[in-house]
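Most newcomers find our protein records easier to grasp once they have seen one. A record pairs a protein's sequence with a compact description of its fold. An example says more than a description, so a record of this kind follows:
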Amino acid sequence: MSTHQTFALILAGGSGTRFWPLSRNETPKQLLKLFDDETLIEKTVNRLKGLVPTENIIVLTNEAQVPGIQQALPDLPRENIVAEPARRDTGPAVALAAGWVAARDPEAVMMVLPADQLVVDTAGFQSILKSACAAAASTKSIVTLGIKPDWACPGYGYIERGAEVQIDNPEINHPIVKVECFREKPSPEVAAEYLAAGNFSWNAGIFIWSLATLKSELSEHCPELDKFVDDIAAAEDFNQFVKDHFESLTKISIDYALMENASQILNIEADVGWDDVGGWPSVAKYFPQDDSGNAIRGEVTSIDSANNIGLSVGGKRIALLGVEDLIVVETEDSILVASRDKADDIKKLVDQLPEELT
């Protein structure tokens, strides 16, 4: 990677409402310390140390979350934390960051990462990203990271992997294959078929490309975003240009704008202890568990209870007696009690809450 600069876009605009009452508008999932004393966005940035210079990392978020992200990432230059003036999905977000990168190095390689994922094996993750960046620099391909599935999860999108591709670059140390197709979230039955087939990966939403490749593909498939990249790169006042023009862009995901139409997409499969941290059940896997399968953290007492998730952070003790399959989360101003199988519906509950609790 010695012939090009590497940049990273971290997408940090999500709300993470499935983690209410811990998550709020100003402290969404990526700003929570769910596993230890580091927020998820701190973990994301720290995984890039030694791979991407701090000054080459741009974080896109919204205005309400800027103070929290600045506090979580004090070493990141303030100007590298950018609030989107409006929600326009991931297509315009990528174009905004690409323009920011193009103004600094039009020959750069750029990676896109969500701010709210967990990766246990940082060294392995970095090794794969190095290979991905080398492949992106050596070809006109978009490179994706796929996660090696360990169960038939119906909640993830899938990547169908094809034949292996040989690229002459000594910095590539992992097998690279052609992407045959992106698959939407499947039914449990279809997910089981994918797992049995052995050539499907979970889609982690992590993409790597050279700026030249990105612009070429956008020029063909989404000219509006390609022009926006050029306009931002040429703007005399980056922040003012974004403020004046970003909201007028068509709302579109990078999947529809680019990934479903790109001429060649490659994939590297990763087995690095990845988790998308989608809700309380996924976090509970990392909590201490008692003999009855209760995943608990904080002040929790349990008798004749099984398979519950209990988290106490607001100073009050949770007492569980004769209950099963519950999520109980206690904070200073709220208590959540939910069926474990309704974890995905917590976001619907948040829509009904008083504004001061969201």
